[in-house]
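Researcher: Sequence of Membrane protein follows. Predict its structure.
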Amino acid sequence: MKHSNFWQKKSVILWLSFLIPALLMGGYFAYRGMAPFGNSSILTVDLGQQYVDFFAYFRSTLLHHFDTFFYSFSKDLGGDMIGIFAYYLMSPLNLLILFFPGKSLTSGILILLILKYGLSGLSFAWLLTKTKLQKGIRVLGFSTAYALMGWMIANQLNVIWLDVLILLPLVVWGLIKLVNENKPWTYIIWFTVLLIDNYYMAWMVALFTIMFMIWQLSSQHYGWHTSWHRFLKYIGSSILSALLASFLLIPTFYSLTQTKGTYTQQSVHFKFEYFPFKMLGKLMPGSFNFDQMPDGEPNIFIGTLLTIAFVLYLFDRRHSIKNRIISSLLTIFFLFSLCFEPLDLLWHAGQFPVWYPYRFSFLMSFWMLWLAAHTLTPDFHVTWRQLIPIVTVITGIYVYLGLNLSSFTYLTWGQLLISIGMCVVGLIWLTIPRYHAPILYDLVFFLLVGSEVVTNAYTSLNNISYVTQSDFGNYTTQLNKTVKTIQKKDTGFYRIGQTFMRTKDDPMQADYNGGSHFGSTLEPSIPSFMGSIGQPDGDGFVTYTNGTQVSDSLLNMRYFMASQPTQSIIGGRATSSILPAVSTKPDLSRQKAVSSDSLTKTTKNNNALAIAFGASDKITSLNSKTSDPVARQSKIYQTLANDKSTSSLFEVQNFDHVTFDNVQSASKITGTIFTKQNLIKNAEVKMTFTPKTNESYYLTFGSSLDADSGSYYLNGKKLSQYPTFRNTVVINVASNQKGEPVTLTFKLKRQTLWMQNVSLYKLNQKHFNRLNTTLKSESLHVTSHSNTRINGTVKINKNHQVLMTTIPYSAGWHAKVDGKPVATKKAIKTFLAIPISKGNHHVQLTYRPPYLITGISVTLVSILGIAGYQFNKHRKQNKRRF
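Model: Prediction complete. Tokens:
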């Protein structure tokens, strides 16, 4: 009896619902040796390439400079940050990260992840106990299955989304209270929290709440009038939640219209995205691997027994026929959403996901678990006669999967056999009445469900590789050290370039102004501009790794960090792997060394222009359509300096000697498609030139020349180049190398190699120096600066000038010249420019996120409206009493 009472205690169950998933996953992470338990880490894919840097940025924002909540020059050349915070960083649980600086950040993320596993289980257990759907040990089976559902396992690397599993049961409880008790405030509060926490997940939950309201109303015996009244109250409550969250949602919405929203799908195809029966494979344990990340089926695994219970609900006569019909229709809608393109797009707010498809499938899993919890009540069991159709259908599923196993890359016969074994035990359990031994019966249920979801978790995660802690820790430590050395010596405003890179968000990791970024809220004008001047770019990223003297000068790249040519061993790894090279830059020999250690060397670029400088107003009307990146750089620089010369800064050069090995000869290199003459032999094209001067030489490199097509060498050493680019890039191949032969070798990896846009250029150093001197003579002298405010003085020597900046244009930037507001202009379709007259001026640039004040005002008015309504309501109630 004591044991029975123990398991009935709500507090015990809730504690265990948190501890069980937390300990199960914590144990797995410890077994894998993930930091702080070993030399592996939780970092993989986007968590390692993006989110970890955002978490470091989150720390620096809260601990050092809160203005970077609104804007940051660590985001490519500068960008709005409200969108990033709203999508990635608004979870209150992220405060845990504040206690984990530098290389220990990975440990903080792991602990954060374990906490989210535990809280997800706790939240679902709390919902089940509040609704009295389940109690005792049974709750633990459901809560563990919820916390370790297939979606959670597949998306644990997307730790930014996981709060939704914690908040979803609370939102659902709010809906239940609204329908059953006509009390909306629980729903309003928790849906508001979800909107603030992650608007993207909130959109999906918002669609689900419509479905859940229909279902919940169908389960009650209300008339049409009452049902309609409750549904209208739900609509009003949802709108009120959005109004309360407007301080964040309105400026975020504007930010999305400038960034991610520009990629919204314009056309919809009414088609199935895959053969729907392939979804059945996702009901098996271990149904996830790396190949499923970019383009897989929805992750809906919750365990065999619970899936069976979910289906049985639709045929369970204990529930009204109306409710079961509506449940079936909603289930069909869900299933179509998981494979039919228009509905898939609806759930994803009109945009196809880039990797991680069917991100809303956690809602299907919740729906399945919710109905299963209504089925597996203490009085439920299946007779042997009822078992026959169930076994028939299940057998058909396993036969289908077995016959088509080769088309399921994530499944093996071992996984199928494990699932069959679990299924058999589960079916037997369903036929046994509970009253014989209730505690043992419930314990078997928990063990059966728990063991299957744990099997799924461990099997799935074993398919994923992770970054080692030493790779992350050693790199991060060195990056922070080098950046701090620069910032200690120079407190001015400048950008820092680098020839090595761990991720495109290194500037956010180490808190410096850079030129690279990877994120879904990247303004489209930035990759468009960067790609046009020869930098690697994509829809969601830019990397400033291929600068010339011209672009380095233009973009205020005052310092460069480069790895030292040493083979010292640190942490058991060679230097070359600690600081992965992503560019070749002989131009650094022209710059002055300012600091160095055993791993890095920092140089100063004295040709770097200020963040703002006087320039010809012709730049605001420049409309260069050239696709040649060096020609575009020259045109921009010459226009800024109002250069009268018709000669480009870059001059085309010829190779002195070209040899062809196992490919046809060609008199012209660029544009030629070289073909292997003997398919089993190696093939290469070798081009040599000898610089006649110490000027800089650059090679343009078309996007067809990727790592899959060939291997590329400079003087016998593999060319360091960031591998992903969609436009022609510019590669620095020589500088200060007069009389020294330079050899470029292209080795074919395939039968053919297209020498797309392969051309050699020389920079006219005298011409460049003259223009550089002109532009530097009207530099803005920055007197104070932050990420949202720049003050300075400037002397403009000529008429018809603008104060040109390399700050990306945004409606949020406001300019004052000599204390008077001045309307800003957009230059080169990218940058902020300010009309200015001849003479000495004081300039102030201030950033205010567009519509932030509007959003705050809407939130405040909503709060005041609620307060007034509640006050008036209580006053009327008090009058009635007296």
